[in-house]
Amino acid sequence: MGHLFRMLNFSVFLKSQNEKFIFLINDDNKLKNILKLNNVSFEIVKLNNNQINWERDIVLRHKIIYWVNDRLNTTKQHALKVKQLNIKLITLDDFGSGARLSDISIYGLAHKGNFKGKKILRGIDYLILDKEIDLYKKKRSQVKKILVTLGGSDTYGVTIKVLKLLKKYKIKATIHLGPSFLHEEELQKELTKDYKTITYIPSLIREFSKYDLAITGGGITPFEANASGLPCLIIANELFEIDNGFFLESLNSSKFLGHYYNINEDIFSNLNILNINLMSRNGMQKLKTQAIKKIYKNIKAK
Q: What pTM did the predictor assign?
């Protein structure tokens, strides 16, 4: 879901530039509904089918000039099919074998590793964040309201782990469930009157403005929260998110609690030790929403 929403943010800018585009997605009803709600054109394709050249059909039918992959693992077979059609390939946070063939490789997140691509754009200056953040920026000074939001599906059920910790330390919070949340039955067993759940909210950025602290995964969400002035307690859902957690902690805009397998729960015993005022200010000062323009200029220059 994070990939979808990142590209939806990009698509808003493309619309403002009168650019035509189409999304290529798996056959997933929730994805389709979200794109329909946003009035975005899309096609269902067999993304992982290397036996047929579905890429050629898409490029010829829609007269594609630029192909953007937000998939993390572009294969060499796929990249070759795209490049053989004499169009430009752009990848985001991609360490797949095909990323080496991309014309522009964008690494906005706090990755460490072997960056691949003909031209590499690296660092938070190239991290796509929702422009709506600029409408809801505000400085926090103390923790009164807490939001828990751990991804579109929360694959590993980290929401349940966090809820148990909050109950253990008698901390109240609102729990946001993503559109593909997978652990409803288990969650219901743990919920008490101290925990409200919300879902299908029209804008997570606007929802951020109601809270003073968020407990999040280590993907795009804490970057967007911090940029809006909302400090986070970050729990990595995936191993590659660990670098993001450490990076945001180094900015002193968030606190990293480790991988979900082994959450450091010490902070829950005394949230007052967090310097919310400083963390909020650091996030707003150090994380900006200008990446889309920079990425667009680099793509159009190719």
A: 0.86
